[in-house]
Amino acid sequence: MEAKSDIGIILMNLGSPDSTAVPDVKRYLNEFLMDERVIDYPYLFRLLLIKGIIVPKRAPNSAEAYKKIWWKDGSPLVVLTKQLQNAVQNDLSMPVEIAMRYGNPSQESAYENLLKHNPALKEVILLPLYPHYAMSSYETAVEHAKAVYQKKGYRFKLTMVPPFYSEPDYINAMAESMRPYLQQDYDQLLFSYHGLPERHMTKADPTHKHCLQVNDCCHVDSPAHATCYRHQVFKTSELVAEKLGIPREKWALSFQSRLGREEWLKPYTALRLEELPKEGVKKLLIVCPAFVSDCLETLEEIAMEGKKSFLASGGDSFTMIPCMNIHPLWVQAVVKWLSALQH
Ligand SMILES: C=CC1=C(C)c2cc3[nH]c(cc4nc(cc5[nH]c(cc1n2)c(C)c5CCC(=O)O)C(CCC(=O)O)=C4C)c(C)c3C=C
Ligand SMILES: [Fe+2]
Ligand SMILES: [Fe+2]
């Protein structure tokens, strides 16, 4: 690594509690769910709902779920993001730090570490590790990074990498990381994406007249697609399936991790896992392309709970395809994008 690069990199992910202890999980959930881009209710109502009802009820259950997947070095999401940092750093002459939107390591610490490396830093490139745009993922990550940047009055330039849901290098890395699993006999490949309240889709539509208002909106061209999560996840699935030569009738798409009583994007993964065996899908492959690193939502919700539910509903085999994590083609893709931005 060069002694003093003018440019520094921050890989940004969602974050996890510091430990599986209930007070740590509570702290994390409070920070996460009090984010107005995640639960977008008026402040006082949100405060009462989150701190008074949701977090006290959810934290002990979440802590149990985290205990089932926790590694000796910590949360899989944070450990895997650090592994990605190291792998990218090996091939890049610019210093690479990581930051979590909630919890640790914080955005502040990432900026400060880059400045320690070079106090005359000219630019920071931030790569939010979310392939798709959502107010509750990509948007809150970049807005938080900007808010900390402004509060600290930093002089360096801050550049954001846009969502990469259809970038050929991401599609290729996804497809190649999945390919070995497709050698086995299967009835269906299910792309399961993190869900969103439907309301978030209409809210993110800058035209105010496209998302969920036009028939088959996600397949009708519109400037709204730049911020339309559902359009973007359809696109990722279509491109990956095409690259792998999977016929349309052999793959499907659903949305997981619903929280609360509102209508979220459908179909719901949890429901589909119960219905699929009854529809003749006995051998299932499942992949979660909204996450580049394995986390609670893949390791516990899908690989443990989802599997249990599918098999109990009459399924014969359930294979979870891991996230890209530090797949060489994914590392190569990140290095390529960041190197290109250097010039
Ligand atoms: C209204 C609630 C939530 C929205 C909207 C939401 C969107 C969203 N989340 C991710 C990525 C991840 N979410 C993770 C965990 C998680 N998500 C929510 C709620 C919403 N997410 C909660 C309460 C939790 C915590 C765990 C729990 O109690 O169930 C994770 C995993 C974190 C980990 O530590 O492993 C990720 C990753 C995206 C990409 C997204 C919008 C598209
Ligand atoms: Fe989430
Ligand atoms: Fe749409």
Give me the secondary-structure topology.
Elements: E1 7-13, H1 22-33, H2 43-69, H3 76-90, E2 96-100, H4 107-117, E3 123-128, H5 135-152, E4 157-160, H6 168-178, E5 188-194, H7 198-203, H8 229-244, E6 251-256, H9 269-275, E7 283-287, H10 296-299, H11 301-312, E8 317-320, H12 328-341
Parallel strand pairs: 1-2, 1-3, 3-4, 5-6, 5-7, 7-8
Helix pairs in contact: 1-2, 3-12, 6-8, 6-12, 9-11
Residues 14, 16, 29, 32, 38-39, 58, 62, 75, 77, 130, 134, 136-137, 194, 196, 229, 257, 259, 290-291, 295-297 line the site of ligand L6N33NVT.
- Helix and strand string, N-terminal first? EHHHEHEHEHEHHEHEHHEH
The outline comes out as globular
Q: Give helix % range.
A: 40-55%
Task: Give the biggest sheet.
Answer: 4 strands, parallel
Strand content: 5-15%
Structure annotation, total helices: 12
Distance N to C terminus: 17 Å
Strands, total number: 8
What compounds sit in this structure? the ligand C=CC1=C(C)c2cc3[nH]c(cc4nc(cc5[nH]c(cc1n2)c(C)c5CCC(=O)O)C(CCC(=O)O)=C4C)c(C)c3C=C, fe (ii) ion
Structural class, judged by helices and strands?
alpha/beta
Summarize model confidence as the mean pLDDT.
Answer: 96
Structure description:
Belongs to the ferrochelatase family. One of its GO terms (cellular component) is cytoplasm. Its EC number is 4.98.1.1. It is an enzyme of class 4 (lyase). This is Ferrochelatase. It is a single chain. The protein is α/β, with parallel strands linked by helices and 343 residues long. The chain folds into two domains: 7-164 and 328-341, Rossmann fold; 168-320, 3-Layer(aba) Sandwich (Rossmann fold), CATH 3.40.50. Helix content is 45%, strand content 13%. The protein has twelve helices and eight strands. The chain has helices spanning 22-33, 43-69, 76-90, 107-117, 135-152, 168-178, 198-203, 229-244, 269-275, 296-299, 301-312, 328-341; strands at 7-13, 96-100, 123-128, 157-160, 188-194, 251-256, 283-287, 317-320. A four-stranded parallel β-sheet has the order 2-1-3-4, with helices on both faces. A four-stranded parallel β-sheet has the order 6-5-7-8, with helices on both faces. Strand 3 (123-128), helix 5 (135-152) and strand 4 (157-160) form a beta-alpha-beta unit. The longest helix has 27 residues, at 43-69. It is globular. The chain starts with 6 loop residues before the first strand and ends with a helix. The mean pLDDT is 96. The structure holds ligand L6N33NVT and fe (ii) ion (FE2) (2 copies). One fe (ii) ion (FE2) binds at residues 211, 217-218, 228, 230-231.
